[in-house]
Amino acid sequence: MRQFKWQTETTCPKDVTFAWFEHRGSFRRLMPPWEVAEEIKADNTLEVGSQRVFRFPMGPIKMTWVAEHTSYDPPHHFTDKMVKGPFRYWCHNHTLTEANGVTTVTDEVTYQVPFRSLGHLIAGRSIRKRLARMFHARELRLRRDLKRHMEFSDFSRKRILIAGSSGLIGTQLSAFLDTGGHDVWKLVRRDPLFENKEIFWNPNQGEINSSDIEGFDVIIHLGGEGIGDKRWSQKRKQAILDSRVNSTILLAKTMSRIDKKPDLFIIANAIGWYGDRKDEILDESSENGEGFLPEICKKWEESSKHVEGTGIRKIHLRTGIVLDATGGALAKMLLPAKLGIGGPIGRGKQWMSWISMDDQIYAINHLLMMSNTEGVYNLVSPNPIQQKFFARTLGNVLRRPAFIPTPPLAIRVLYGQMGVSLTTESQRVLPKRLIESGYNFEHDDLKIALQDSLGKWKL
């Protein structure tokens, strides 16, 4: 048997820290941000017999990990053991102690790899390195999440409904809000599971039961066909527009008719609103740009007009490039960057306005919890960067060269108009109103944000 130990300190009280672990969302928040893992099952308790099941890629196959909790002593201790997975044996003890205002979470893992001594000889070092990376990521997430929740510890918890909860941002936002003690429900387009707090809707058919969405404090709409998932045919462009506009109109009209209206309606959007603006510095007061994406973004914001005059506050989120290794723009950049061919696109002078996934989630939480937030907010780092320097920084983090240029013509041949728009248009956007609202960024340095997203620290 081998042993691995990791300690995390936080200024959050022990009972509050333990309660964070007890929420179902903690499972997702503790998953390393570079791991492409699918949650299959997560019981809403840490009590003995409860299970958490997830599936993750291991080479060309998908491996299932089943963990069962075998001891439970709140707020001091809990244990889970691997029932099924890649190890011969795995037992993870979590112990919480508190002294002088500091809570220490001690993770102790006892494990045995397949083929015993031979397995450790072949893979032992790489396993310990992977465990160190994983637990360092867990430490960062735990400390940051607790800190952000404590900022609003005196505020009442909210009942929140999210459309688009299974997307890249929605998955993390749902988990984070759940660990904060909020009552989080999800709008889904399949048969809903009431025990998972799901509500059915079908925006393509205009179907939603108005009584189902009564009594929520906040409704968040993150849904819509992926902008960069496929080439832009006319049919695809129409689907991108319709998926955003029709669903928002349905929600807005339904909210305007119900008796118990939400206090706040948050609608996702993108900095595509501003269009290709070269070196111009843009903030929330800047005018709408020209082209397909600015048109989509403008119509999306206008589609929420049906809640105006109803007493419901509206927030429009204009989000930049969200750094997440498992999806979105960064995931598409990783393979060429790892191969050493992720250099500048064209001359690389186009501006990239980025934001870390954690800042994306924390900023939404900040705007959601504040009572005086309303209107448009740019969700981007205060430090946009030109694409050639972004590529250079990513290469530095991955320890790969990043000087081989990619001609825009190659992008057009491979991805069509979609690829050219998303990689060569320039948007130098600042989060002016978000900063004015009092939000403090977790990541304002691109290199640190990429290291956290990819687990590329020097430990």
Describe this protein's structure.
It is built from twelve helices and 21 strands. It is an alpha/beta fold and 459 residues long. The chain folds into two domains: 149 residues, Alpha-D-Glucose-1,6-Bisphosphate, Chain A, domain 4, CATH 3.30.530; 296 residues, Rossmann fold. Strands 11-10-9-8-12-13-15-19 form an eight-stranded mixed beta sheet, sandwiched between helices. A hairpin with a 4-residue loop joins strand 10 and strand 11.
Question: How do you describe this structure in short?
Answer:
With 459 residues, this protein is of the alpha/beta class. Helices cover 36% and strands 26% of the residues. It has 2 domains: 2-150, START domain (Alpha-D-Glucose-1,6-Bisphosphate, Chain A, domain 4); 159-454, NAD(P)-binding Rossmann-like Domain (Rossmann fold, 3-Layer(aba) Sandwich), CATH 3.40.50.720.
